[in-house]
Amino acid sequence: MSTNNIVVVGAGVTGLTTALLLSKNPANKVTVIAKHMPGDYDIEYASPWAGASYMPFGKKGSDHAEWERATWPALRDLAENQPESGIHFQDITIQNRLKDQNTVTGQWSAELTSANPWFKDFVLNFQNLPRDQLPPGIDNAQKFTSVCINTAIYLPWLVSQCMKNGCVFKRASLEHISDAAGTHHTGNKADVVVNCTGLASRTLAGVADDQVYPVRGQIMIVRNDPGSMTSISGSDDGGEEVTYIFPRAAGGGTVIGGTYQKNNWDPLPDPNFANRIMQRALKLDPRLVKEGQGVEGLDIVRHGVGLRPARTDGPRIEKDQVNGVKVVHNYGHGGFGYQVSFSCAEKAVGLVNEITQQKDRAKL
Ligand code: FAD
């Protein structure tokens, strides 16, 4: 059996999931190199900051929607059968206000908040809330059983699953994507490099994709637990501010957000945003604090900011050749990297297979 030397660049959810699927084939010898690894919290590393829940945003019939549909079974399976992955089932209520439909957050969540969404037939226990149960100002709302991913457990869990399959992890910060070919743990040149560098694909030499841009998300993690997830289409605090509440598995606390600020690179939590996020969260779900309490009842673990790695034309998953090095790109997953992780990784693995099979045929 001939072997394939593969270097995956990036250890966010995209790189780790791609490495995991690649490593299931014993012919693939996989090295993962990254500037940031699970355990790090950095503005250049989006994955640890995600909520992270499964809330489909893709427009009906789009690739995006198809990737979300195709990733659900894997996330459901992990919640059902591998609780050590840090993923658990959580009911979610999603509220919609028609007045948000032309705002940034309203457009972002248009499919999610529709009364008849394409995903209603496969998520668990989907129901539209009866009109008489809608809170004041809400035009429609839906409820289903989703998952919530504790990223602090899930990302290291992905590393452990990759290592079990023989992947080798190395820290490195690349200047040029083609340099990755020289970093394989065997010392041999990589047959394929998989680029999963997220937002850095905008500046990394050899990629330099100017379609990639940040969407800033400010969040906080609190010890309070309201018991289920809630989200809403927008807020009265401006078109880029929104509210969501995600209680995570295994004592991970509750992530409260947030903002959806396009082309904003500010890495520091803004106290004004934080204040508004807390006020809105309590309004959206008063179960966060004890009766009679206000925001002082929130027990904050940390404030944070993550930059969602968005791309104008959507994620880029395609083959490329840079300085003679065969590259497969898998980046640009915006605010939905977890909920498309398995299907996008599968697509990238298919492209890697095309390259390695071509290499094997050339040897015959
Ligand atoms: P990243 O996690 O940013 O990883 C990039 C990797 O590339 C890192 O390891 C980095 O060190 C490495 N790298 C970059 N440049 C170099 C270099 N030059 N050399 C070596 N290594 C390099 N998604 C969901 O599905 N559901 C949610 O509920 C959700 N909520 C979110 C909430 C917030 C506040 C944010 C910020 C994001 C949210 N997302 C959510 C989106 C999700 O987090 C991202 O889509 C996803 O994390 C992107 O992962 P990635 O692996 O592509 O990029």
From TrEMBL:
- Which positions does UniProt annotate for D-dopa binding? Y244, G335
- Can you list the GO cellular component terms from the UniProt entry? cytoplasm
What Pfam families does the record tag this protein with? DAO
Which molecular-function annotations from GO does this UniProt entry contain? D-amino-acid oxidase activity; FAD binding
The entry's FAD-binding residues are T197
Give UniProt keywords alphabetically. FAD, Flavoprotein, Oxidoreductase
Q: Which InterPro entries match?
A: DAO (IPR023209), FAD-dep_OxRdtase (IPR006076)
Give every FAD dependent oxidoreductase domain span: 6-347
Query: Could you list the residue ranges that cross the membrane?
Result: none
Domain of life of the organism in this record?
A: Eukaryota
Q: Please cite one Gene Ontology biological process associated with this protein.
A: D-amino acid catabolic process
Q: Which cofactor does it need?
A: FAD
Keyword check for Flavoprotein, yes or no.
Answer: yes
Q: Which family does it belong to?
A: Belongs to the DAMOX/DASOX family.
Read off the PANTHER family from this record.
D-AMINO ACID OXIDASE, D-AMINO ACID OXIDASE (AFU_ORTHOLOGUE AFUA_5G11290)
Q: What is this protein called?
A: D-amino-acid oxidase
